Amino acid sequence: MIFGRRIMSIQTKSYHRRVAALGCVACMLEGWDSTSPVSVHHVEGRVGKNANYKILPLCGHHHQGTREGWDSGIISVHPYKSRFEERYGNQKHLLMLVDELLAGLNHHGEILEFYHNKYTKIRSI
To answer: Whole-model pTM?
Structure first.
């Protein structure tokens, strides 16, 4: 550790890059452009066992919210976790979606449609 912080392994950094390359999972489910820069949201905090592998790629609007996002009605996971999960499905289901997307990038549309129909309250994709 350096100054109380953990150093991320090469494998973990690589995983984070692959997840981030998917784009914002909430934007995907909305049917919006999901290619804006993302940050990773740690579903169970940053220090638990395998915490660095329980992550969701979220844009700034969907992760921590921005004035612009709030003004346009975008629901961010911070500080609106329950509203976020009501719209997009619970975070454990979103983790499964991310795993599926990483495993089957060539079936992106089918995976999103299945998830959308099963877990979200979004009317159309």
So the answer is: 0.80
